[in-house]
């Protein structure tokens, strides 16, 4: 630190130029990402007339809340939101509990059969049956057109198990031992000591699983025909496909398009994304941690 | 304390040892049963690819037909079309989407710590959390004749009449690649940022004292130290070459762009789940996963050899 050589003038100028260009490019990047999203948001507050004319840029044209009212008048949307919430809440709780239960047992090095169990698990990370055999299996199990197809196949995941297991191993053994001496059984140690101490990692796993459950429409697309069981993402998918077909039958002008379809589509997009966009900035650090958590293992 | 317990256990027989840890075993077994049902049964179900499976069959009852389904697939024009589309889209995605997160991560790491850096990160990670249904809906809206994209091109004078590029099949590959990059490039910087953050700052100090500017520091310090992680992500990317994004395709594909939009996964989906040709679709899926596996293994061997030969000096 004492011998600070003064960098020559060229380097200073080069660095200044670098920083300026860098900041400008980063501004451009945020604009490139934020503007298209913003455009959809303001479009959802624009009236049907302006939507069919186009030219909506930074602010709503013909501001209206009618699009949202139209969405909420449709009772099937309410139902779809209910299914999405149920699938997310039940899915996350059961997934986190089931994975941590297995992980707690697997974290004990003296567990008999541990090598065999982990071999069985690791194979599932590399091989799978793929779409059609999975579909046939669910058909045989009677999971088609059942709410449980959202929950049961998501109960367990070996990757999340590894993450949890590694976390549990770092909990000081003395804590568990003193509880055992006080007469606590295996389940009590797991529920009263290990789980409460693992809240950060449980939160991270829950968040990733929650985003998956909320965003997932493929499960419904593949295994559900009953519209009553559609989550909101699938509902939105139907709205989008519908409007695509109408747009195609008359590609030259969208003025003929039943404008309500597009308005409803836009308002549904915003409503569907809202929960995630509201929650995400506050939980960003957990998501980032979760990304690098898994990577360290590799 | 621990050692004592284990010694004490060794004296007991296997049966009593197992009995004493019964609660733990009962915690693991549900996981094992789960994997046998939901992971191993579908793997066993792959045998359907070598059978003639009809709607009334179970995994066991179907007739064996050998490689018949594979032969049909390899002589099917639609299969090869979907392979071609998958490769073209994947290639574009890698070309744009592989280097971009590396560049962005370096750029973000060069920003001064503070509110601006945080804002850039928050905004660039955001699209990752949009589902493909939502993003697909957005893309359809941007691309519509009255949407943001046409509006922009019109005001720039690039086009003089509104166009919907989603209805132009030859533009689909680029749309698929670019929307995917738009969604994931920011999020994919996280791993690289973590690696950059772990670089010893004294390297940079030394370089600064020697008069190296930022560009040289990036070229001679940051990039070489990222080599390992880049090799790893590259291996994974190549493994996904034939993996196509079903979520994205099902939303963005329409009757007009289908010839250029149909990828392997959506083809398997259509043949298997929509048309009920289970055996044929399973055969296609299996053939593709075998090729993917070979790709991963050979890329892995290659990058390993490259890394080793470089670490010699």
Task: Summarize the entry for a quick read.
The complex is a heterodimer of chains A (298) and B (313). Helix content of chain A is 73%, strand content 0%. Chain A is built from 13 helices and no strands.
Tell me the strand percentage band of chain A: under 5%
Summed up, the domain count of chain B is 2
Instruction: Sketch the topology of chain B as an H/E string, one letter per element.
Output: HHHEEHHHHHHHHHHHHHHH
Name the CATH class of chain A. Answer: Mainly Alpha
Task: Note the total helix count of chain A.
Answer: 13
Approximately how much helix is present in the residues of chain B? over 70%
Structural description of this entry:
- The complex is a heterodimer of chains A (298) and B (313).
- Helices cover 73% and strands 0% of the residues of chain A.
- With 298 residues, chain A is mostly helical.
- Chain A has one domain (66-297): MetI-like fold, CATH 1.10.3720.10.
- In chain A, α4 (75-106) crosses α12 (232-249).
- Mean pLDDT of chain A is 85; it is low at 251-259.
- Chain B has 313 residues and is mainly α.
- Chain B has two domains: 1-36, no CATH class; 68-311, MetI-like fold, CATH 1.10.3720.10.
- A two-stranded antiparallel ribbon of chain B has the order 1-2.
- In chain B, α5 crosses α10, α8 runs parallel beside α15 (246-252) and α14 (227-239) packs antiparallel against α18.
- The interface between A and B is large, with 116 and 102 residues.
């Amino acid at each position: 630190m004492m011998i600070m050589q003064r960098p020559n003038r060229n380097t200073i100028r080069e660095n200044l130029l670098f920083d300026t260009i860098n900041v400008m490019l980063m501004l451009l990047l945020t604009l490139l990402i934020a503007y298209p999203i913003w455009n959809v948001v303001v479009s959802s507050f624009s009236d049907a007339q302006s939507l069919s004319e186009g030219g909506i840029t930074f602010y709503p044209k013909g501001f209206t809340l009618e699009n949202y009212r139209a969405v909420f008048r449709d009772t099937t949307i309410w139902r779809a939101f209910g299914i999405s919430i149920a699938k997310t809440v039940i899915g996350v709780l059961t997934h986190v509990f089931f994975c941590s239960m297995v992980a707690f047992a697997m974290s004990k090095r003296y567990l008999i059969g541990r090598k065999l169990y982990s071999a069985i698990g690791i194979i599932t990370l590399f091989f799978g049956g793929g779409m059609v055999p999975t579909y046939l299996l669910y058909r045989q199990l009677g999971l088609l057109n059942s709410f449980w197809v959202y929950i049961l196949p998501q109960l367990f995941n070996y990757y999340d198990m590894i993450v949890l297991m590694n976390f549990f191993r770092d909990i000081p053994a003395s804590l568990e031992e003193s509880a055992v001496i006080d007469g606590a059984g295996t389940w009590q140690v797991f529920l009263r000591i290990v789980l409460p101490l693992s809240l950060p990692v449980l939160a991270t796993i829950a968040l990733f699983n929650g985003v998956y459950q909320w965003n997932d429409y493929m499960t419904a697309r593949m295994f559900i025909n009953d519209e009553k069981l559609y989550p909101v993402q699938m509902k939105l998918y139907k709205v989008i496909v519908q409007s695509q077909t109408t747009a195609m039958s008359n590609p030259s002008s969208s003025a003929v398009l039943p404008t309500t379809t597009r308005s409803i589509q836009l308002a549904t997009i915003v409503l569907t994304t809202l929960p995630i966009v509201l929650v995400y900035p506050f939980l960003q650090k957990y998501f980032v941690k979760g990304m690098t958590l898994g990577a360290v293992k590799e | 304390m621990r050692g004592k317990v284990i010694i004490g256990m060794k004296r007991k027989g296997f049966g009593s040892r197992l009995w004493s840890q019964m609660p733990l075993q009962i915690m693991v077994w549900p996981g094992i049963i789960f994997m046998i049902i939901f992971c191993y049964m579908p793997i066993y179900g792959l045998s359907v690819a070598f059978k003639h499976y009809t709607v009334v069959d179970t995994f066991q009852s179907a007739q064996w037909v050998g490689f018949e389904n594979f032969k049909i697939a390899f002589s099917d024009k639609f299969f090869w079309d979907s392979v071609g589309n998958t490769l073209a889209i994947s290639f574009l995605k890698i070309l744009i989407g592989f280097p971009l997160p590396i560049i962005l991560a370096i750029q973000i790491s060069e920003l001064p710590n503070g509110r601006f850096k945080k804002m850039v990160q928050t905004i660039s990670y955001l699209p990752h959390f949009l589902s493909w249904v939502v993003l697909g809906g957005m893309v359809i809206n941007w691309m519509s004749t009255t949407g943001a994209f046409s509006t922009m091109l019109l005001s720039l004078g690039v086009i003089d009449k509104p166009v919907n590029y989603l209805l132009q099949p030859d533009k689909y590959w680029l749309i698929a690649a670019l929307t995917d990059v738009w969604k994931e490039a920011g999020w994919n910087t996280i791993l690289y940022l973590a690696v950059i953050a772990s670089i010893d700052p004294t390297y940079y100090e030394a370089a600064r004292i020697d008069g190296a500017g930022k560009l040289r520091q990036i070229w001679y310090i940051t990039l070489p130290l990222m080599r390992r992680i880049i090799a790893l992500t590259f291996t994974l990317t190549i493994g996904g070459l034939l993996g196509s994004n079903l979520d994205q395709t099902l939303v963005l594909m329409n009757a007009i762009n289908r010839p250029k939009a149909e990828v392997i996964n959506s083809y398997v989906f259509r043949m298997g789940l929509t048309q009920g040709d289970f055996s044929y679709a399973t055969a296609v899926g299996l053939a593709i996963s075998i090729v993917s596996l070979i790709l991963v293994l050979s890329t892995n061997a290659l990058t390993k050899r490259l890394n080793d030969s470089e670490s010699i000096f």
